[in-house]
Amino acid sequence: MTCPQTDLPAVEEIDIPAMRERYRQERDRRVRKEANEQYIEATGKWAETYEVDPYNPVVPRAAITGEIDVAILGAGYCGMMVATQLKAAGLHNFYSIDHGGDFGGTWYWNRYPGIQCDNDAYCYMPLLEETNYMPSKKFTDGYEIQQHCQIIAKTYGLYENALFHTLIRSLKWDAAINRWHVVTNRGDDIKARFVVMANGPLNKPKLPGIPGIDSFKGKMFHTARWDYDYTGGEWKKPELFRLADKRVAIIGTGATAIQVVPHLGKYAGQLYVIQRTPSSVDLRNNKPTDVDWFKSLQPGWQQERIKNFHHAAMEMLSPGEPDLIRDIWTEISRNLSEEFDAQGWPGSQAEFMAKREVMDYRVMERLRRRVDEIVEDPATAEALKPYYRFLCKRPCSNDDYYPTFNRPNVKLIDVSDTQGVERMTENGFVANGVEHEIDCMIFASGYEVTNELHRRWGISPIEGRDGLSIYDYWSEGLKTYQGMMAHNFPNLFFTGFTQAGVSATNSATFIAQGRHIGYIASEALKRGAVRVEPTQNAQDAYIQRLRSVAVDNSTFVKECTPSYFNNEGDENKVRHIFGEPWGPGFYDFEDMLQTWRARGDLEGLALTTGQATASASSGASRASEPA
Hints:
By secondary structure, the chain is of the alpha/beta class. Helices cover 33% and strands 15% of the residues. The strands form 6 sheets. Strands 2, 3, 4, 5, 6, 7, 19 and 20 form an 8-stranded mixed beta sheet that branches. Strands 9-18-10-11-14 form a 5-stranded parallel beta sheet, with helices on one face. The protein has a 3-stranded antiparallel beta sheet with strand order 15-16-17, with no helix packed on it. Strand 16 and strand 17 form a beta hairpin. It is globular, with a radius of gyration of 25 Å.
């Protein structure tokens, strides 16, 4: 037995048809007709939630108007991985541009109490072998991840190319000079030969559009900009002593809140946890890294582990393939492998999916029973139980979340019947017809993950050839070649969840995309091209092929409880959080791109040669490295 099964309820103990109907009912009572429009954009009076850096002062610098080979928009994991791959391709004349004060992206901004990665750090943290770095534990603390981002940046010499505290205001293609004008809030007008959109999926906080939110006279902040001046404590020592006499509410019970709530419950005089839909929360069991085990790992171990995690989390384990990860993300695959070893492996995809659905119900029932084992009040326990399929919401793990509801100062406010808080007042909030007076409201309401692109990116305009807006061009859905370029937008590259392969480990996706972008950009320069873009025919053919091999999971998504995984239940929305992923999987997609690069003919791309303007240094002062 390579993958011992977890202790699960027997299938006979679960009335699956009845549970399926329960899932539907629970979903329907939470769906809001506004879908993503229920959230407020972080602009206008709320712009500070996104634009202002509360951690580091802005260092004055001169505006930049010179040229650069590549402008990478973003310095989080995505932008950093692209930068390392550009260097590997021989491209060194680039800027990493970010409105944060250092590398790290979401790990720079998010400093809330309890913050950790919520999947295996040995996969999640990139370039561990290349930086000779050992994570301290399986689910590593946020400050350690940000420190590792600094190590990556130093190892690869990225600080010399960094422009921090710089917000992109507009991008316009200039056909006269074959450059992108990158205009920023610092007065810059950078002329970039190539631009890489590397702003990541979790870069812009969103706020709940609660009626009366402007009338509340107490303290409000988003978890992505935690205010330790108000709560007490600090990033690495979140002892929230200033909340001892405060009445605090937190709205949202997703992955962030699961980590925050135990700290608020410990320190706040009174805590209200406002929940529309509960998360599934498993045992964390966060162990320190075994140093001897880590030293025993052979070269190539991280890529092997990442591939194994991808199989278990997004596809299936092969016969005899062990589960190296062994946590909530891989439990279903681990259990199925044990079952298949004992009973025989399925002979078809349909048989596999049927057996996976049964295992899904058993795992979710185990997670619901776990609530009863911990939470003392029966009504609270029932409200905390997740009634939906696994992966309808991001799975969580935490050893202290459920016990927090046994504290006398902590009260769960279930707003599923009203699909959210009814309104805010000068003194607090109203839920289920009752006003609760509070001193502080904390928003754990997530990010602009599935809202329209202009809200997610916050850059307007983005105009390609002949002034064509990317927002108009993609208004009815994505149109790309290989997920990374688009016709009418020369020398512009896209990353993340587009029309490409998706790995269970985001940084693996970003590294692969950076490798492909680096190849195309370097080859264009070697061949004297001033413009490179997909032909219309090549793009059309790619999209047709992409959709011909797509995996149809629309029924599953439609049946899920509303979350950012399914556009808050909006069945008409044309864009999904993961874009249009390559159906046969991430590694099949990578093999296809490798074959394409090996041919060396840049098939599907139109290269325009001409008199290229010599790239010039802008003379901007370099970002200083942190101590």
